[in-house]
Amino acid sequence: MADSARAQKLVYLVTGGCGFLGEHVVRMLLQREPRLCELRIFDLHLGPWLDELKTGPVRVTAIQGDVTQAHEVAAAVAGTHVVIHTAGLVDVFGKASPETIHEVNVQGTQNVIEACVQTGTQFLVYTSSMEVVGPNVKGHPFYRGNEDTPYEAVHRHPYPCSKALAERLVLEANGRKVRGGLPLVTCALRPTGIYGEGHQIMRDFYHQGLRLGGRLFRAIPASVEHGRVYVGNVAWMHVLVARELEQRAALMGGQVYFCYDKSPYKSYEDFNMEFLRPCGLRLVGTRPLLPYWLLVFLAALNALLQWLLRPLLLYAPLLNPYTLAVANTTFTVSTNKAQRHFGYEPLFSWEDSRTRTIRWVQGVESSSQ
Ligand SMILES: NC(=O)c1ccc[n+]([C@@H]2O[C@H](COP(=O)([O-])OP(=O)(O)OC[C@H]3O[C@@H](n4cnc5c(N)ncnc54)[C@H](O)[C@@H]3O)[C@@H](O)[C@H]2O)c1
Ligand SMILES: C[C@@H](CO)CCC[C@@H](C)[C@H]1CC[C@H]2[C@@H]3[C@H](O)C=C4C[C@@H](O)CC[C@]4(C)[C@H]3CC[C@]12C
Q: What are phi and psi of 226, to 5 degrees?
């Protein structure tokens, strides 16, 4: 990139900037994007930690807003150079209705695209998901696949359906003329299962283990590999993509990239134990303790209970037919597309990612005592 462009002062907007990933993207931008002059953080719920960011050289603007409200999105987008759209309803447990998931993830994304077009913002980075590809409803394994690996991406669950639709909208919008006549440049990042500081499900497993006397019970065979990626590296990929999109628009516009790093390929449970074991938990069993048919039965029972109890209370346990199918299907990526297209190398080694995550879980422990 030319020096004159590097010296340019840029305004970024991060939607969902107070979420698990969004917070890391926000902090990473402040640390590693020297051209930043204003950072707008748009979220339904603003975090108190935002105040501490307001004392630095970059102007930090917190905007409480809803992506489903087109006028709120347009007001936040107006005058920005780059939008990183991470906001989304991540719900595979049946907490929200399919309609709400669609409204936030699909209509919300459409609103972001239209806001870019109307107000003249040229660069849009979308946080998609591995779920756009799979695991599919047939439980086909995706073993060390890349962005070009053929796979039957068929979904029924509202969350992956919504992410797939939203990703398509973003990619199809690449090249649309924005206000002022320049082309919109878009691309989508597809993280696998993200882990790291702030990961709610890891916290839930940790507390469950404590309740069970320091034990977790193996439910999924160790041979089922699950793709995982450290949140700091996912955030770093977002920052790099946003930075390089202008200079490499022809190459990167309309492209998808899996998010990857050096995290090892393991089963979901064995991977979690990399962090939970040093915090005093152990995983009981070298093989699943319950036969798979019984897990399928329990998952179906949970789904039935959720439906029956819905008028009275929200019953949303971790185990349901969808989460069981995802946990029990190998889905791992092996690709270097991000390195080839925009020079991505993971910022955090596996050892670093592991240490940071363990420290965070240990902090969760002490803060809940
Ligand atoms: N967590 C993962 O493993 C994972 C993996 C792949 C992709 N993703 C994607 O990454 C993105 C961030 O996920 P996350 O895990 O950080 O989830 P999260 O729930 O922690 O963060 C999402 C953020 O979006 C905000 N949000 C939700 N609805 C909104 C609305 N209507 N208007 C404005 N803001 C709204 C939430 O308040 C939250 O701060 C999502 O788009 C998700 O689909 C997550
Ligand atoms: C059967 C249980 C025994 O311990 C384990 C259930 C684990 C599940 C709750 C999680 C297994 C895989 C997770 C998903 C995966 O990591 C990728 C995702 C993509 C992302 O876009 C959203 C989150 C998620 C769907 C993630 C959710 C939790 C799991 C299903």
A: -125, 130
